[in-house]
Amino acid sequence: MSLSVNIKDLDVLTSNAKQIQDDVLKEILTLNANTEYLQRFLHGSSDKDLFKKNVPVVSYDDVKPYIERVANGEPSDVISGGPITRFLRSSGTTGGKEKIFPINDKYIETLRYLVALFSLLTSKHFNDNDAKKGKKMLFLYNRSESTTPSGLMVALASTSFVMSPYFTNPPSKSNSYYTSPDQVILCPDNNQSVYCHLLCGLSRRDEVVGVGSSFAYALVQAINVLQIYWKELSSNIRSGHVSKWITDLNCRNSVSAILGGPNPELADMIEKECSNKSWEGIITRLWPKAKYFECIITGQMAQYIPTLEFYSNKLPIVSTIYGSSESLFGINMDPLSKPQDVSYTFLPNISYFEFLPVDHEGDMASIVDLVDVKLGCYYEPVITNYFGLHRYLIGDILEVTGFYNSTPQFRFVRRKNMVLSVEIEETTEEDILKASARATLVLDQSTNLMLTGFTCHADISTFPGHYVFYWELKAKDVNYVFQLDENVLAECCYALEESFDVFYRKLRSKDGLIGALEIRVVQQGTFDSLMEYFISQGGSIGQYKTPMCIKSSEALAVLENKVLARFYSKKISSSGLIVYFCVLKCFE
Ligand code: AMP
């Protein structure tokens, strides 16, 4: 990446998006012209028009055989003109299937560039731009890597980043902004790691100005761990000794050095705050100088907005970057925007970006360039990267919300294939999020409970099929006796159904083809167990995204084993019928 990390360069970049995109495509096609993959379509040419005409738009299954050949030891130029030095494993929680993607150092360098750029933007807004002004408590994790048959490393993007010299040995030594030493971040045991992150963060509480993770779930999980371990954490701080179960020596020694010796005053303060009957605002009580959360909070992660707000007395949640294992895309230029309003500005020098308008799946002629997308329209990104993916469909749906100079900005709408359906209706991630926000209002108004995690599933094992929502609930006050009120939960079921679209409501009310929606309340800790299940399949806390809909029977079994109670919607909405007839009238 030739540009340095400063805001002026960002203006240059976003003002010349068209030219930069054309240059990027030229560079990629020249680099890859003689690969086996591109030869078939371009016969050595790097012409843009020919590329648009001949190179097909593809999904993972189309390129998998080429990727696997390189992974199995054939030369990189089967697919990529540049060297392939490692593979990224996508976290597998979004689409269900695990995929690997070829990359080299350029990907990690781009990620470093985005992270540094984003840090610069947040520092400007929160005025914490040097180590003297404070530290960030970041819950970053490492995850053991595997290798391909040819000996190349396969790791998650987050792991590849924290293991790289860009992170462990940065030119600016910006790591000193973090409360945790590298040894804690790099510890391969995530349980020891999260405990030590908390211990370091608590020891340095007066310096903490920001609290973050890659994706929001890791923050919620850290708060859960704090709730379980606060007595042990404060006892470690009181004595100055790290618990014996922290057996990773590098981690242990580095944390001991940070504790520095017994600190009974700090231990008293932690015990006082954590034994308070309400945990509302615990983050700002323990870390009074914290000004913001920093993590990806859009898309599937949006379900955690109320939880993070509750624990922090509504600290701003700054959503950071948008990216995937296939390519990085862009950053949130306006760190202060509310999570619901966040848009990401694509950076034109990362990959060549094209866009397939939603509902034009079969019509490749409708694909447009980055600078030609239209405000308010919905698209799926199609990327051509430096490492061998050409016109690859990402599977996310984005909406164009504006332009930063000449570069479009996009709101993340949903994953394309994440839909609930028992009949012909399609209930998307976005619908589910909106409906859940409405149902939690009912919960909020009538109980002392909060929803700390959810996912759902279309159960078609019986007729009529119905939607099942798995809800994990927690009392807002620690001493509150956990009670489930059948009427309130039935109302929550109804609120979910009421939010779904006219097709759902018609199939439910008029045709009886969808059965009553069900909420299954699960034990506390169930969503941590679900995460552990996905991690055992190759994921990592750092990159984990709770799936909004569950299709895998193994993951469902994790939830089913923890069901405490079941509630059904008791009413059938008549508005489904009315709205349906109104829609029909409009088409007459
Ligand atoms: P992975 O390759 O496993 O890291 O997963 C990448 C996927 O995570 C993307 O295709 C998106 O579906 C999701 N994702 C990444 N960044 C964001 C973001 N800022 N907002 C919403 N979803 C995101």
Automatic annotation (TrEMBL):
Domain GH3 middle intervals: 344-415
Superkingdom of origin: Eukaryota
UniProt xrefs under InterPro entries: GH3, GH3_C, GH3_M
Domain GH3 C-terminal: 442-553
Pfam families from the UniProt entry: GH3, GH3_C, GH3_M
Key words, A-Z: Ligase
Extent of the signal sequence: none
Entry similarity comment: Belongs to the IAA-amido conjugating enzyme family.
Name of protein: 4-substituted benzoates-glutamate ligase GH3.12-like
Source species of the chain: Camelina sativa (False flax)
Top-level taxonomy: Eukaryota, Viridiplantae, Streptophyta, Embryophyta, Tracheophyta
Gene name for this UniProt entry: LOC104779223
